[in-house]
Amino acid sequence: MEVRCPVCSRTDQVVAVPGAVAAGTTYKIGRVRLPGTREVADLPTAATLGASKHVMSRTQLAVWMSFPSRHYTPWARNQGYIMLCAAALVHLVVSLVIAMGQDPQWGEVLLAPFCLTGLFWGFGLLNVLGSHGARRRDNVEAPAREKALAVWESLYYCARDNVVFEPEVGVSFHPSETRDYIFGFRNNR
Fold first, then answer.
1. Per-position DSSP letters for 110-143, written without gaps between them
2. 111 to each of 11, 91, 93, how far by Cα in Å?
3. Contact 76/84 with Cβ under 8 angstroms?
4. How many CA atoms lie within 13 A of 147 on its CB side?
5. Within a 10 A sphere around the Cβ of 41, how many other Cβ atoms?
6. For residue 33, what is the DSSP state?
7. Distances (CA, A) of 142 to 1, 76, 126
8. Taking residues 18-36, what's their average pLDDT?
9. Given this model, what pLDDT does residue 24 score?
10. Residue 114: is its pLDDT beyond 90?
11. DSSP secondary structure string, 60-98?
12. Which of 9, 121, 148, 158 has the fewest CB atoms within 10 Å, measured from its CB?
């Protein structure tokens, strides 16, 4: 299918938005030199040896037209459970140490470890409750994100006129308005 730009009515500069984003994104994986390298050969530093790093660079156009990603890493959802397990383990060990003392009372055996583990219990519980709310929000937003992704995948970009458009609709807009368009204007799809 030949897609024409609604502004200039030409096809030679029209590309799909996902392709334009991919073309404007570069990845450099491997060993890179950190800034501040030393020129003295016999005194190696971490900067002269290089550091294992993944570097991603994007053009402003690719940033404007990219599909918005989540602002969290998947393992962040489980931090609360990890903190609660660590707190329970430390609490158990400290309770056993106190219980092996001379004539301990059960109140101090069970409550005294909270002096060491109380912050872990509190922050772990806050993380678990926060991740529960975030998962619920993700489930509510999932249909809207799927519709937005379908709209984003059908968009095209004309480099000659610097416009993004959807061929079936015929509306063109500046690339910086891409996220507003896919989530706001075209929500009836």
1. HHTTHHHHHHHHHHHHHHHHHHHHHHHHHHHHHH
2. 73, 9, 13
3. no
4. 14
5. 7
6. P
7. 30, 19, 24
8. 64
9. 78
10. no
11. HHHHHHSPPPPSS-GGGGGHHHHHHHHHHHHHHHHHHHH
12. 9
